[in-house]
Structure prediction request, 465 residues.
Amino acid sequence: HSPVQKTLVDFMILGPGFARAGPRSKNGNSIISCDIYVQRFGFRALPLNPLKVYRRANALFFGILDGIGGPTIPIFFAFFKQRFLHKNSKPDTSITGISYGPLPRHKMDLFLPVGPCTSNKGEITPKVPVIIVFPGYSWSNTSLIQLYSPMAQTLCETGLIVEWTYNNIGKSGADPEQIHLFGFGAGAHMCCMYNTASILSGLSTSSSSGMLSKILPSSNSNAELLEWLRRLRKPVVPVLGIILVSGVYSLEKQRKYEESRCIESISMSSRLFDNPDFAEAWSPLNIMSGIRKSGLFVSNSLFAKRVLIVHGQKDSTFPLELAQKLFQEFCLMDMDDVNMKVYANLRRIDPSVILSVQDALLAKSFLEDIRSAIFVDESDVENETENPQDSDKGHDDHDLSSDVEDMNDTDEDSQKEENLSNVLNGMDLKRASSNASSASSQNQLEPNTPLPKNSKPLSPVKPIS
Prediction:
């Protein structure tokens, strides 16, 4: 090809920055010399190292299992059977295509519950909780997939409103004091980052704002952290609760995990967060750990009041270890109500698939998790108000053994981390300042397993195949 043709090809493939001028010819004209680097595809794109070939094939195999393994195929079969063989008598309460911003992609769908919360004219009574759903699969995909509709409609059966964003909450008649963020996959990362931004925005206005530049170990990461914190338009208002399902909470650790599996070149997270400093600055787990280790005082008003973390035990896309570490960080920072549930023998948990069939055992168990995260257990409040004498009696008993109580209080702080580690290593989190429970009867805590402070027993869940 002529130099001009090479330049055009080079411009289309690599952009204008890759064409460089070569030596001048005898007539004084510049001869364009182009180095065209074409990305290899097909057979030549395969790694030559046999170990890399094995690791990449192994990651691909387990990635397919994460997508279609477990209950996915039976749930889809039940969904299509219910869709085509049974007439849907439930009214469609969705309001689609609501614009909440200036850009064309700023669209949201609003799902209203049917029942006592909605009048005949479609108006909503006050004090209705709100769930804002952050979709998963990709950080750059903002389209509204049709598969989300049955998930949202199923959530409405619990008496909730599902919103894709909390703009216009007042106009919808919802209670702005009962906002919950619900995210899975990449959406769980964004929900957790919102909670982290709420904490950092509160710290930036306090007297300890100078310590924010020393949270992360790398100076470049701290600079990136302060940069995106500076871009926040206004202080971030903390929400009532967050629900995180099969998410990634440390992009820096996720990057290392994918490099060990030789899939960093095809991973969406590695391509979007290719800079290690940038990945660390956008890792809520790293930021929360840095805040705790730096000794910064964080008021409980900056945290989400309730946190629920749900993960599959055999998830190979986003390892369970990162979710366990995030749960541990939340507990060590004395958040009000932190819960975690690990589904044994399940891989990646996709709510859009699970909640498409309401009668499935897995859907019922998952909905019960959401109810416990959204609504306060009224029986606990009634017991506290109706039986004040029992609590006084307990006080008297403690007075009789004050020496033992003082000893326990002294050792409580030192045993806190050890107890958390014991629970996490057992992978059976049972409402331990986390009301964590396992979906399998085979993975239960031993009777003498120590639990963290303020632990509450959770009702047993039926085994799920």
The chain has two domains: 3-34, 68-375. Residues 402-426 form the longest helix (25 residues). The mean pLDDT is 64. The first strand starts at residue 19 and ends at 24.
